[in-house]
Amino acid sequence: MTDPEDLATQVREGDLRIHELEEHADHDTAAEARRLFVERETGTDLESIGDYTFPAERAEPNIENMIGAAQIPMGIVGPVDVNGDASGASDGGAADGEHYLPLATTEGALLASVNRGLGVIRTAGGADARVTKNGMTRAPVFRVNGVAEAAETVEWVNDNFDTLAEAAESTTSHGELLDIEPYVVGDSVYLRFAYDTKDAMGMNMATIATGEACEIVESETPASLVALSGNLCSDKKPAAINAVEGRGRSVTADVLIPGELVEERLHTTADAIAEANTRKNLTGSAKAGSLGFNAHAANVVAAAFLATGQDEAQVVEAANTITTMDARQREDGTSDLYASVSLASLEVGTVGGGTKLPTQSEALEILGLRGGGEPAGSNADALAEIIAVGALAGELSLLAALASRHLASAHEDLGR
Amino acid sequence: MTDPEDLATQVREGDLRIHELEEHADHDTAAEARRLFVERETGTDLESIGDYTFPAERAEPNIENMIGAAQIPMGIVGPVDVNGDASGASDGGAADGEHYLPLATTEGALLASVNRGLGVIRTAGGADARVTKNGMTRAPVFRVNGVAEAAETVEWVNDNFDTLAEAAESTTSHGELLDIEPYVVGDSVYLRFAYDTKDAMGMNMATIATGEACEIVESETPASLVALSGNLCSDKKPAAINAVEGRGRSVTADVLIPGELVEERLHTTADAIAEANTRKNLTGSAKAGSLGFNAHAANVVAAAFLATGQDEAQVVEAANTITTMDARQREDGTSDLYASVSLASLEVGTVGGGTKLPTQSEALEILGLRGGGEPAGSNADALAEIIAVGALAGELSLLAALASRHLASAHEDLGR
Amino acid sequence: MTDPEDLATQVREGDLRIHELEEHADHDTAAEARRLFVERETGTDLESIGDYTFPAERAEPNIENMIGAAQIPMGIVGPVDVNGDASGASDGGAADGEHYLPLATTEGALLASVNRGLGVIRTAGGADARVTKNGMTRAPVFRVNGVAEAAETVEWVNDNFDTLAEAAESTTSHGELLDIEPYVVGDSVYLRFAYDTKDAMGMNMATIATGEACEIVESETPASLVALSGNLCSDKKPAAINAVEGRGRSVTADVLIPGELVEERLHTTADAIAEANTRKNLTGSAKAGSLGFNAHAANVVAAAFLATGQDEAQVVEAANTITTMDARQREDGTSDLYASVSLASLEVGTVGGGTKLPTQSEALEILGLRGGGEPAGSNADALAEIIAVGALAGELSLLAALASRHLASAHEDLGR
Amino acid sequence: MTDPEDLATQVREGDLRIHELEEHADHDTAAEARRLFVERETGTDLESIGDYTFPAERAEPNIENMIGAAQIPMGIVGPVDVNGDASGASDGGAADGEHYLPLATTEGALLASVNRGLGVIRTAGGADARVTKNGMTRAPVFRVNGVAEAAETVEWVNDNFDTLAEAAESTTSHGELLDIEPYVVGDSVYLRFAYDTKDAMGMNMATIATGEACEIVESETPASLVALSGNLCSDKKPAAINAVEGRGRSVTADVLIPGELVEERLHTTADAIAEANTRKNLTGSAKAGSLGFNAHAANVVAAAFLATGQDEAQVVEAANTITTMDARQREDGTSDLYASVSLASLEVGTVGGGTKLPTQSEALEILGLRGGGEPAGSNADALAEIIAVGALAGELSLLAALASRHLASAHEDLGR
After folding, report:
1. Is beta strand A127-138 parallel, antiparallel or unpaired with respect to A141-143?
2. A255 touches A273 (CB < 8 A)
3. D162 catalytic, yes or no?
4. Which residues of B carry out catalysis?
5. What is the pLDDT of residues D216-273, one digit of tens each?
6. Which of A280, A283, A331, A342 should be substituted to probe chain D, the one whose Cβ sees the most D Cβ atoms within 10 Å?
7. How large is the average pLDDT for residues C318-339?
8. Which residues neighbour B31 within 8 Å (Cβ) at sequence distance 6 or greater?
9. Which chains touch C (3 or more CB pairs under 8 A)?
10. Nearest-CA neighbor of D363 among B379, C294, C47, A41?
11. Which residue in chain B has the smallest CA separation from C285?
12. Exposed e or buried b for every residue in D373-384, given b needs 16+ CB within 10 A?
């Protein structure tokens, strides 16, 4: 019965359904049987996909119908020199100091570029980073009869925050309800619940807690629940509400780079970088009707997410970044470069989700951020700060490359 | 010299730089040495990260500073029953028929959900899918003295498309310049070049070709190049220009599901699903200031991207989807469900980038879409159509779950 | 000296500057002199512009360099049957009942269309309307050295709301500071102050009060003020922050129209109207990357603003509306039409600004809403509710026209 | 029968309907009767509203249910020194030279502010202005059975542009069809028709012409028309499609102001203005999720629209502006200020609509732009260029005020 060939045959003959294999064999055998079935159906050889090196059972909370694994190359950049505030302690939090940041990607030149930026940041004395806002959100949508009932519902919710908080928090040992923001559109009422979910990214926690609170809303008001998510959360969509109000961590990282360093290491000037940033990241994005005012923050966010077991689909909003680059004039007339990235909705966790898988868990260990932090939430804060500095390094490096190429060609022009 | 321990020590002592290891050893040894170095620096054991099963050398175009790989669980959904138009041939293109779709993710329940949706689609006779637009874009930004020069530049570009196309296409054997759209903002001129890049995702191709054309623009007009990407491309940012005008493939998939099937398999009604879609995906997203009018298309896009070696950071715009769900009334008063997803800017390729890596390459083989298509471009078209159907299945399944839960509770209400 | 001909000559000869005329003559004479000057310079006859009928002096707070007036045709629609909540009193607020709504416009057919919609609303028993949020905002931007100072500033502001409120409110007899929301982008800190400005639109009040509070922020934190408005207010720009969080009044109006009435008076069906609304106002606007999900709410808002002396440039955000139209099925299988408009950021006042000018003041009197309300704020609330019902009527009428034309042509199709 | 008192009584008693009055009396008497009726119903005295000074009959195409007029104060700014390109002629187009710009507003200080900016522009040698794109759009939405039919429809439309152009242009003596851009969302097809409507704003022209073309689309493809406007036009909504692709005129105005002039006349520096612009108009608007990257362009656009008889509700998109301000360093180390405004979708006309009303017509005469231009379209182009320069002046003046206030306070700081 647990021979993978047999199982594959049974699936092929319709005696077993493809998702039922784990009921008849251990997880690795089930994956093998499924792979065999697919190989036969499609005439392929899935040796590499089958060559994963973790116990399939460990992936049970993460996947169904497993056939193996995608292997994404992982590299290392750093050290990331960050003056963070993750723990709030006077002697420096979890993100205070130097960390190697693992990145998994297939985008050639990305790590080299980020590493170059990190080197400049280190020489400049490190980057500052701060989480300026924190709250995982879930926004159910309710149906009411019309705006009269909507107003009544909103009023009840505003008056009964404590009751709803008690219900929501009864479902979680760590989560804390911070806020409920109501929005009315015709006969729909959206309630945006925001939670402090500590070291968990927290979407599941927020969903379950909100579900509990919704039952009370339904029983005490005229509103009936249509969907636990009404898209004002907003999860895995590029929404202004996240860009403006934040989701997960809002985090900023910045650095001041002496003009000499810009010239020596980036082969350009603060003015040239500032110009490229303004024309591309600010004016260009403005004209594009964009919610993203950066060069390629998504590259760093996505690669760090893959390496550390974050939710890869949340890259959509987690990458939402405004990059600023300004030339700060000194008294001697030369300019230093002030560079910053502000990520509005970086959803990260160091517990739960994909963080427990073997390679991902090791990646978090490299950062010293595996599992819950002390105090709770500080590991996720620190991860947010480090990713932000990584994104800052990537922005610096790319914009410097653009600016220096321009300078080079300007020099050629003069040389003619 | 090629002992990894020695190399790690040399890095630690500053005799070697961390990115130079490949100059002194083969790629796997270099990765091992780097891993050893990181293990010592951080007091960790990176056994799982080191347990990758492909030759490190194959990842050379994809990563620097490699230490190993992230292993992301991969599963299979399907068959995907799609009536596509990928090849334009009367007997059906590459996406015409049934395909198993590999998905790599850490998001539990995702594959089960998509698979449920695909089952319903199959029973309903399959989904239609069409690529309605295709063009990989790159939009450099130029500096001019002012709007007078901007207008002069735009006029020259409009008058000299052929010259620019010749230059651009001289750099590529496959790519074809389709269009140059100029935009003026003050003393900045943005030219959005759009290419048919066939089976390649094509961003590099577009960048190189555009660089060549830019030299002509610079020599023939007053404009000087500031940055090869001026963010009107727009790459890896959630920009309206992509949502409106498309980037990569614009693709729609849809299906008509008989009312009986909605009830039997999804345990709800077309009306209830349509209501949930309107309140959540349309009105909710509208209120959120969103560019994404869907439930969780990013989940499917991200998982398919990881499995098949696409650029994970492009999930940002590739997931840009409008989902519609309508109850179509029949003469007998009952309703069928029309469901569709329209992805505006799905950037995919079956050659280049991460598609050559072993597990990713096998994933494309499962789909029958590895490498270049016949005719050129048809494999990438087919991949776009199949991912769209996967996203459609995910939307269907989630919205049905929301709607049926609601119906269930409505029934309870009546039962009280 | 006060002969207009002489004055005009002096301006022409450079002895007087065009804006100094009021220093040498009464306002009407100054306007006449200026008109004469312009007539001579441009070879025109400005008889109509000069034919205004109010004392020029009354326009002093509203214009400089006055030459006369634009006369915009004003008409009347109504009665507007609204069940509002403007006063919060049990016996109905200021907007409870029937009102004639004056509209000034040059858009032919607009009033006819709105009037048709209002008639249907009356027959249906009137529309409900509620102000669901209220707050005039002003968001100064401060410069800090970097994110460390930004975080410090935000913390200080959060800890010292009462101090800032006291300062802000010291400048106004009516205004009340409701909230300060901080936003950090690199080395910029934005503080969004929100006020209850009662019956005044309140932008000046908010600006002055915020200016006072800013002085304290500057003296107590490292932040220095760059601009009293940092565009997160956001005034006279179409910004998601207003669409999401509101500015001025967030107001919803809705109505349930029996199916028979839809057929008799609008010559179409609830289903057809709902379809047109979904394809045009929801899906169409989604695809357009729009912040406005309506048909032509701006027409009604602009015309009501002109008639009642509101700020015409605020139409930009005041018109920001989501329109929903749903067919609500009855037990007998027929459908009623639920229609709503939700205006997120309707900035209106019944005191100050242009409301004191003669024609505008009379227009407010027609509505019974001239001057301050009892309680304070109720007149502006009522005005918001009435304008919302006007917008609802306009949406209904236009969508019905679209839907009925379609039905008509569908009938023709069948007739062929 | 034509006694206004009698007519008012008949309306009150229900013998006449309020919109039928023009059938029983001349337009002025009808307006008087309606006014009397409203006065009695509301207990008001509408003397000022009734004190309009144009023949009511002239407003017939612009309003229904007329009771009089709103009188909006009108002033004059200028001369506007503009180096335009309106006519394309070598000796300068209609906007080439100096013009007085009439503005109607109730926003105190606006004209003074704009005038200050215009003075600086004149001293700097005038502003350049160019219309960089032109096309009035109308985008009907069609229903199809699904994406297969959508693709078929799009293909037919792309293949039959000439046929559709012929049909569209058969309805107009001036209009010219420039482009049809198709967009597919599920079972909806949107076709964005763009026209050169010469000196007319052209929305009606575009609507009628598109209606004609739609009939052919309906007869030749499976598509059926749902609504002549599907919101991808996009009219009177703040939509990215307009900001990106333009609607009406896309126009840029700019000026280079010597540093000395910035100091003498604006009491600040190019650097300080550039900083305020970046933090407020670029970064602030970015963080606000805005489609408007300017300070108060809507003020100038709205006031010019009211004065010259444009559609006041189109201010929503016509004000869509990106403002840039940069310090351009000179060899001596000092900086000049480059300032620009780019209005993406300025819908203006010099014929039709409200332009024929007496005061509005005179306002156009002041500009020398009343009626059709020679060549056709040049008057509307010129109007666009002049309004753009007016907006530029307003931006300059406000940003300088912000920057100088800051400088002043910085000086105080130093003085302490």
Report:
1. unpaired
2. no
3. no
4. 107, 311, 411
5. 999 999 999 999 999 999 999 999 999 999 999 999 999 999 999 999 999 999 999 9
6. A283
7. 95
8. B21, B50, B56, B66, B67, B68
9. A, B, D
10. C47
11. B286
12. beebbbbbbbbb
How far apart are alpha carbons C344 and A245 in whole angstroms? 16
What predicted TM-score, i.e. pTM, was given to this entire model?
Answer: 0.97
Which residues from A are below 8 Å from C146, CB to CB?
Answer: 128, 254, 256, 338, 340
N residues, chain C:
416
In sequence order, the 6+-apart residues with CB closer than 8 A to the CB of A82 are A95, A96, A97, A98, A99, A126, A127, A128, A129, A253, A385, A386, A389
Catalytic member of D107, D155, D179, D312: D107
Provide the β-strand partners of residue A254: A128, A340
3-state secondary structure of A134: strand
Confidence (pLDDT) at D65? 98
A98 vs A257: CA distance, rounded Å? 18
Task: Tell me if B402 sits within 8 A of B394, measured CB to CB.
Answer: no
Q: How far is D91 from chain C (nearest CA, A)?
A: 20
| DSSP summary character for residue A105 | -
Contacts of B244 in chain C (CB under 8 A): 287-289
* ipTM for the predicted complex: 0.96
Nearest to C360, CA basis, from B99, A147, D70: D70
D191-200 average pLDDT score: 98
Residue numbers in A near B287 (CB within 8 A): 183, 185, 190, 232
| Test the B interface: residue of C252, C271, C283 with most B CBs within 10 Å | C283
Q: How far apart are the first and last CA of chain A?
A: 79
Contact between A243 and D326 using a beta-carbon 8 Å cutoff: no
Question: Cis link prior to A234 (omega < 30° from 0)?
Answer: yes
**C42, C68, C109: residue with CB nearest D74:** C68
CA neighbor of B155 nearest in space, from D344, D199, D194, D88:
D88
Q: CA B173 to CA D380: how far, in whole Å?
A: 46
Contact B253, B388 (CB under 8 A): yes
Q: Distance between CA D16 and CA D3 in Å, rounded? A: 14
Q: Name the residue with tokens 């480059």.
A: D338
Q: Which of C91, C162, C331, C411 is catalytic?
A: C411
A147 and C154: CB-CB below 8 Å? no
Min Cα distance D185 → chain B (Å) is: 6
Q: How would you classify residue B291: left for phi > 0, otherwise alpha for psi between -120 and 50, otherwise beta?
A: alpha
DSSP state of A21: G
Chains with 3 or more CB pairs closer than 8 angstroms to A?
Answer: B, C, D
Residue C162 dihedral angles phi and psi, to the nearest 5°: -60, -40
- CA B269 from centre of chain: 32
Tokens of D318: 């016509």
> Cis bond leading into C234, ω under 30°?
yes
C-alpha distances in Å from residue C250, one per residue of C180, C236, C375: 18, 16, 19
Inter-chain residue contact C287 with B322, CB threshold 8 Å:
yes
What is the tens place of the pLDDT at every residue in C67-122? 999 999 999 999 999 999 874 444 456 677 789 999 999 999 999 999 999 999 99
Q: Which of D244, D283, D326 sits opposite A322 (nearest CB)?
A: D283
DSSP one-letter code for C109: T
Here the tokens at position B16 are: 């070697």
- Number of other CB atoms surrounding residue B280 within 10 Å: 30
Q: How many CB atoms lie within 10 A of CB A43?
A: 10
Please give, rounded to a whole number of angstroms, the shortest distance from the CA of C22 to a CA of chain B.
37
Q: Measure the CA–CA gap between A352 and A373, rounded to whole angstroms.
A: 13
Residue B319 reports pLDDT greater than 80: yes
Q: CA of B34 to nearest chain A CA: how many angstroms apart?
A: 9
Catalytically annotated residues of A: 107, 311, 411
Q: What is the largest CA-CA distance in chain A?
A: 82
